[in-house]
Amino acid sequence: MAVLSYNEILPKCIIDYSGAPYEVLSAHIFRMQKRKPVNQTKLRNVVTGQVLEISFHSNETVEEAETARMDAVYLYSNGKESWFAEEGAPKNRFSFPADAVHDQVQWLAPNSVVEVLTYEEKPMTIKIPIKVDLAVKEAPPAVKGNTVSGGTKLATLSTGAKVNVPLFINEGDIVRINTDSGDYAERVSKS
Questions:
Q1: Residue-range definition of the domain harbouring residue 78
Q2: DSSP state of 100
Q3: Which pLDDT band holds residue 27 (cuts at 50, 70, 90)?
Q4: How many domains does the chain have?
Q5: Are residues 90 and 111 in the same domain?
Q6: What does residue 89 show for φ and ψ, rounded to 5 degrees?
Q7: Whole-angstrom Cα distance, residue 6 to residue 57?
Q8: What string of DSSP letters covers 104-145?
Q9: How many CB atoms lie within 10 A of CB 172?
Q10: Which residues pair with 57 in a beta bridge?
Q11: Residue 45: what are its φ and ψ, rounded to 5°?
C-alpha cells in the first residue's frame, strides 16, 4: 500500500481511514496565518455511504486503500437485494442491499455491464456510466397549451424509473438520462 502525505489526499482517491475504505470527495489545503498547512477533506465511506469531514495536518500520513475494479453484469433486483455476476464468470454472483445501490440500479437494464469496486477481494460498491440510453415505457399524451409546468411530463422508463421529459417524448422513444442528476439529457431515437 502506498503511504500518502497530507497534500496527496486528493479527490477520487480511495484511502484506508480507521480500518475502512473512504473515497475522497473534496480536498482543500489552506494555511491560517502562522499555523502549519491543513488539508480539509470530505470523505465518503465506500461501504456505508457515510460522509465525514476530516482535517489532515502536515505531519499526518494515510495509507491508500488496496482496491481493485472488475466488470460485472447486473442481473436483477428482488426488493431487498440487487444481484450481479462477474463478467465472464456467471457462477461468481454477489449482491448488494437494495437501499445501498438503489440510486444506481434504477438506471440499469438487466444484463448491463457495470464497474464494481472491490476492497480486500470483496465487492464494495458499483459505478455506472454517467449517461445511459433507456426506452420510454409510459408517457402521457401531450396536451396542446400545456406549457404552464415548463413543458415537461412525467414518463416511466423501461427500468421503472420515473423522469421528467419534454412534451414531444412518446412511448417507445429512446432517451438519454444523466445518472448523476436523474435528468433527461436528449432523445436518442423516435419510436
A1: 67-127
A2: H
A3: very high
A4: 3
A5: yes
A6: -140, 75
A7: 6
A8: HHTT--TT-EEEEEEETTEEEEEE--SEEEEEEEE-PPPPTT
A9: 12
A10: 38
A11: -65, 125
Q: Is 160 in the same domain as 177?
A: yes
Cell 498547512 -> residue: 37
Verify that 73 and 60 share a domain, yes or no.
Answer: no
152-157 β-sheet, strand order = 162-166, 152-157, 131-138, 174-178, 183-189
Domain boundary among 127, 146, 179: 127
CA terminus-to-terminus distance, the chain:
52
Do 104 and 140 lie in a common domain? no
Residue 172 belongs to a domain with what CATH number? 2.40.50.140
- List pLDDT tens digits, range 48-100: 778 999 999 989 999 998 888 899 999 998 878 899 999 988 888 999 887 77
